[in-house]
Amino acid sequence: MTHPVPFRTRWPLALAALVACVLVAPLSAQKAEPEKALSLWTKMYGSGKLDLSKPRIQSSSPGVKFGCVPKERAQAIGHLEELETICRRMEKTDNAEVAELLIELVGVSLGGGRIDTPEAMPASVAKVGDDAIDRLGSTEALAFIESVARDDKADELERAAAVRALGRRDDKKYETLIEAALGAEDGLVRLAGADACSNGKNRFAAPALIKALGSEQEDAVAAMILIAMRAIVEQHKEAVDEDVLRRIADSAIGVLGRCTWRTDVEACELLMRVRSAQSVPALIEVLERWQEKKLDEEKVSGTLRHAAHDALKSLTGAVFAMEQPEKWREWWGTVKNEFVVADVPEKVEGKGGPNETVTENDFFGIPVRGSRVLFVVDSSGSMAAPIHGRNPSSDAANYSNKMDAAKGELKRVVARLTIDQQFNCVRFSNSSELWKKGLVEASERNKKTFDKWADDLRADGGTNLWSAMHDGLAWESLVYGSRYGATVDEVFILSDGLPSLGEVQDPKQILRLVAETNRYSRLKINTVYISGPPEDERRFAEIVGMSGADFMRQLAEQNGGTAISF
Questions:
Q1: Which of 133, 134, 259, 353 is the most buried (most CB within 10 A)?
Q2: Are 531 and 387 in contact (CB under 8 A)?
Q3: Domain assignment of residue 242, yes or no
Q4: What is the DSSP-derived secondary structure letter of residue 31?
Q5: pLDDT tens-digit profile of 240-287?
Q6: Same structural domain, 337 and 391
Q7: Measured between alpha carbons, how far is residue 22 from residues 60, 68, 326 in Å?
Q8: What confidence score (pLDDT) does residue 13 get?
């Protein structure tokens, strides 16, 4: 999908006029004019003139110029808080003009151009705009938003913003609007249509989502449709017609193998929840396709293989090894005529059973299930310190310091990777360093080369996590619907502290950036946090607003992974 620069040709003239207006009128004579402040803020943001990573705004910032932010507060807030203040000042003016300004703001944040940088914080800006739109309730404002959402000639970014806004309202009258968006020619609008339903509130959208998935070819859109379906099933299963549930299962089965492993993982997750007998042979086929190894890396993933296997175990109650799809197929041939879906198990992921032997590789006790694995390892100066906690799932207690534990675990886990897996590692301190430019197969030769590289790791410098993630995942874009450039399907991040250096240091901002891009990349991100002295942990938590352990836990939980802290 394309991402045109989302500002109109009239903006340069409007920007000049607004600036001229401000220069003429002294601040002391002005009343608060939030609409003008937001218009100028959006235009400056879209042209790359606002750096949201800076902690303080200037006295010349839009919110100050138009009386929304007191001049004395300019040195106490950043541009994102300035935007929130402006939007709050507009709440009493609930009309079409305000709706237009907010749709324009969100449209800019969804697009490319000069906002596709970490300091632009596009996901955070979109969230502020979305929240402000959700607070609108007047007939006039909603009518304007609906007119943009239905206009197939409107700016695609603004139309996407409008579609998302109405989809969040859980109103049956917007059902045809969502259906039209899901069938739009532009992929960005289709993505917005699916995204609008991803909170699960709008159960009336299920038929439109089913219809759209039947012909969708774009990976990000298909995956988001499946996510929306899963949310609807989880929240409204008792209220959704049995025929609709059957059609949801049919549509999820139909998409398997059409796009990439990312979409297939979402399909497996949905089929586990819809719980239909027709899913069983389709899931067995996923295991068979892996076994045949006829698919490229965009189709094959260890996380997909495990997702299909977990779904099969959940639906059937049977336990056969995922490496033996022929046993699953043979078993299905004998039971399919009398088969009844099993009750939901208390725990889907079990380590083996009477017909399965599991000897999973692990990193600090976290199973390694990906077929293309990236290890992101902290080598900052604090990693030379002794280990204070104990991780009973690893040999960490046998090492004298954190760095030695990291090196030992890295070498152990890489040694146990299989030849059909690929891997790479990036270490970070003041900057980051990739072991290899890209993923390599887990051959004996590559393992020996890696061991030598790992042995040379030294603890020194600060903690530039952003650089490591940016380089290791080949971060290509931050705009709506984009994903990482690397073909990695599982990540393990090891660190002993909060970020202290780099282009992005705020842990909350890193969480937002990763969560937005990973919505479409579907990487499983696991984290290992090695804590320092308790007094240091408390001090850093007071300064930053969260502890290192909290940051790493949220990074894993928000991205489908497992977090370990010790």
A1: 133
A2: no
A3: no
A4: P
A5: 999 999 999 999 999 999 999 999 999 999 999 999 999 999 999 999
A6: no
A7: 10, 13, 74
A8: 42
